[in-house]
Design brief:
This protein has helices at about 10-15, 40-50, 85, 105-110, 125-140, 140-165, 190-200, 215-225, 230-235, 240-245, 255-260, 265-270, 275-285, and strands spanning about 35-40, 55-60, 95, 115-120, 175-180, 185, 205, 210-215, 225-230, 260-265. It is α/β, with parallel strands linked by helices. The two termini are about 25 Å apart.
Length: about 290
């Protein structure tokens, strides 16, 4: 789905994805505000964007932005949570994506009377809208959430028009490399990177598989990307830009001849939070510079 398609999405679909009725979107209430734990860097960003950070009593280790989020109590990595760590913070609600787990921990939190809202990760603009909706509801900041979403929707629609008008010719082939660990991998379909490339007006140079695969010389040669997309953290993990281009697999690509690489902060690039328009704009501008 392109940015221009977002206005066809109905709010009811988002509420259904969260397993909550539209009636839950009431006016901002008074009284004591809920204590929140967020399990997703993007969801944490939404909390700050809504001005609800005073309600934030804990976050996971992917919550790195804004800088103030680094000082919040941490409950661990989003896929390796412990019920004890979360419960020790005495939250009223936990807001996470469907990538959070393990499931038994989420069940334990529900059993303890904690509200657990899970936002499904499908790497669409609706992901952002659902996160804003979930935080607004859980924090009792519904009016602020509606205002934020209206601003984001307008920015996203305008960006979609700009990109559509600027990419009338052949689309650039782009390949995403995930190199945070010792063995770099490349992104196929059904990934945040694949969606980001398409939003930015490019084409994923690798198709025919879902998820990630090891980066091989054969894959790089057949993909023939015009540019490489990666993260700042990934380049740093390989020892910097010069070390990055010394990977022998990259020498087989057209991108290598021009040293065409686009890198952004990982959370900004792949988080699908309120800064998604910023990420898409940056990738598009550098891809078609």
């Amino acid at each position: 789905m392109s940015p221009a398609d977002t206005h066809t999405t109905r709010r009811a679909l988002l509420a259904a994805a969260l397993g909550a009725p539209l009636a839950g979107w009431a006016q901002d209430g008074g009284g004591k505000l809920p204590r929140l734990v967020t399990i997703s860097g993007a969801i944490t960003e939404v909390v700050y964007a809504l001005g609800a950070q005073a309600q934030l009593v804990g976050t996971d280790t992917t919550s790195l932005y804004p800088a103030a989020a680094l000082k919040t109590p941490k409950v661990g990595y989003m896929r390796q949570l412990s019920a004890e760590g979360v419960l020790s913070l005495k939250p009223d609600a936990v807001i996470a994506t469907t990538e959070a787990g393990p499931p038994v921990v989420l069940d334990q939190l529900r059993g303890a009377g904690i509200r657990v809202d899970l936002v499904k990760s499908e790497y669409t603009w609706d992901d952002v809208r659902a996160k804003v909706l979930a935080v607004g509801r859980a924090a009792r900041k519904e009016a602020a959430a509606r205002e934020l979403q209206a601003r984001l929707d307008a920015e996203w629609a305008q960006l979609g028009q700009q990109i559509a008008g600027a990419t009338q010719g052949p689309k650039k082939r782009m390949l995403f490399i995930l190199s945070h660990g010792p063995s770099p991998q490349v992104a196929g379909q059904g990934t945040a990177a694949d969606a980001l490339i398409r939003f930015a007006g490019g084409v994923n140079a690798l198709t025919g598989f879902t998820g990630y695969r090891p980066m091989t010389a054969e894959a790089m040669a057949s993909a023939a990307p015009d540019a490489i997309l990666t993260t700042d953290e990934g380049i740093a993990a390989l020892g910097g830009p010069d070390k990055f281009w010394q990977r022998p697999e990259l020498a087989l690509t057209p991108a290598f001849q021009r040293r065409a690489v686009v890198s952004l902060d990982a959370l900004l690039l792949l988080g699908f939070g309120p800064r998604l328009p910023q990420a898409v704009r940056a990738v598009h501008q550098r891809l078609y510079a």
